[in-house]
Amino acid sequence: MTSTVQPRAISHRPRGKVRPSRRGIVRAVVLVLVHVAVLLHVAHWKIAGSTLTPLEPSEAKETIELGLINAGFVLFVLLILATLVVGRFFCGWACHVVAYQDASAWLLGKLGLRPRAFRSRALMAVPFLAAFDMFVVPTLFRLWRGDAAPSLAAHFLTSDLWASFPGPTIALVTLVVDGSLVVWFLGSKGFCTNACPYGAFFGVAQRFAPGKIVVSDACEGCGHCTAVCTSNVQVHAEVARYGRVVDPGCMRCMDCVSSCPKEALSFGFGGARTSATASGPLTGARRTWDVAWGTDAALFVLFVVGVFSFRGLYSVVPFMLALGLGVLFAAGVVSLVAAVRSRDFAFQHTVVKSNGRWSRRGAIGAFAVLAFVVFGVHSAVVQGAKRAGTWNVMRAAGRDDVLARGAALLEWADARGLARDPEIESDLGMVASATGEYRVATERFRRAVELAPRRPDPWLGLAEASLKLRDLDSAEEALGALLALDPSHVRGRWRAAQLAILRRDFERAERLLDALLADAPDHGGARSDRERLRATLGR
């Protein structure tokens, strides 16, 4: 990056040889044990068939949307409460994504490279935007639809531990992007600082925590603490000004405490120097930024475009991966533009251009970034057409012109995408069903379930189109798969009852309708079917 976007080096150079932190090995062992615990959790699920719901803060979204109180929600609440007291110990000592970022930073360090932290106002706002999207937007949509708040119910056991997580390939890509590439672009713990939605909660809670890294009068301002900090905190400046570390990005790794040659740092609930008690004048600890406001605005817009491009791309990119890709897209575009415009340009520790000439590494890196940017722009165009098409299909409401426009957009996106998208196949199946082309609809829905067998909507569409064709065996197969994925699926249970009626299995149909109406007493279609069934049976 140029001087306007290049991450700044540490402004306070440490005096003397910096001794490595003894806490690093301890923390590495703890993070390994965290992964062992995860493996034991998965093994218990495989052996027992059911286990505790995932211990992931992301599971709190299910509590907000469906009212299901699970282990992830309880853990998230307890972690926030603990952070309010002692700060972000969980982030530094137990988060698996931090483990991958620290491992990447360690490997780069072995190669003599230490990626510098990139400080941007826009990117540091991303965790708050992500948290808003995950935990607030669902409630706003519920209020907009006029739906009642979900009833709370305990849900601590599951027979499908991996239901809300991506497959192994996407999980690996997520680890590489969020745990490695973001570190190279934005510095150690770059994902935590610039993307993690849970970090937004922990960062706010930490501001109120009385437990902090504090300093004694033995401090000589050598700067060793800042040199070893992997959370990119200017420790020496903060303790000089405030007598303690107040930066919400501090993850309590305790490396600064371990490396202090005077043992002047410690974790405690007091001891902060003030202007009245300081042995010397308090120096500034003002936060510095690596880009001007204009570049920050561009970064924000580019991040939004990036997340729009990648989130749900081909129905395989999860939110956390999209966040990492969005941050890389924004940083990549800004870096590429700066490199093209500059005569002398360096990115992290690599000279990209010197006196107007591209270095070999710089040219290769620029080409890789350009390819990624082109891929992102292509994805944005395909995603835009897909979402516009879906919007038109959903709001058609019998209007053939709107339905046709939606189908045309979906087919355009389907033809220009780089991979088949089960959502597009399913939406086009809905269009075919709406126009009475049930055989075409079944073909679309079958392709959708082949691409994404764990999505319920294509199975439902396939079942309904098969019922229209009186292909009862296909309808039964599709409904069986649907209800195996979601036994409480209301529309699926209703169609299963209708299938039983068509098969003249009236007793089973009546049982299914009674059970459905017990759970959904306002379901008009099920109530009408039961009344007609009872009339047929002479009841």
In words, what does this structure look like?
The longest helix has 35 residues, at 360-394. A hairpin with a 2-residue loop joins strand 8 (350-354) and strand 9. Residues 7-11 and 271-285 have low confidence and may be disordered. The chain is mainly alpha-helical and 539 residues long. Among the domains are: 293-379, no CATH class; 398-536, Serine Threonine Protein Phosphatase 5, Tetratricopeptide repeat (Alpha Horseshoe), CATH 1.25.40.10. It is 62% helix and 5% strand. The protein contains 25 helices and 9 strands. It has helices at 23-48, 60-66, 71-86, 89-94, 96-110, 121-124, 126-135, 137-145, 168-186, 190-194, 197-206, 224-228, 235-242, 255-259, 293-310, 319-341, 360-394, 400-416, 422-434, 438-451, 456-468, 472-485, 490-502, 506-519, 524-536; strands spanning 51-52, 68-69, 153-154, 157-158, 212-215, 265-268, 345-347, 350-354, 357-358. The strands form 4 sheets. It has a 3-stranded antiparallel beta sheet. It has a two-stranded antiparallel sheet with strand order 1-4. The protein has a two-stranded parallel sheet with strand order 2-3. It starts with 22 loop residues before the first helix and ends with a helix.
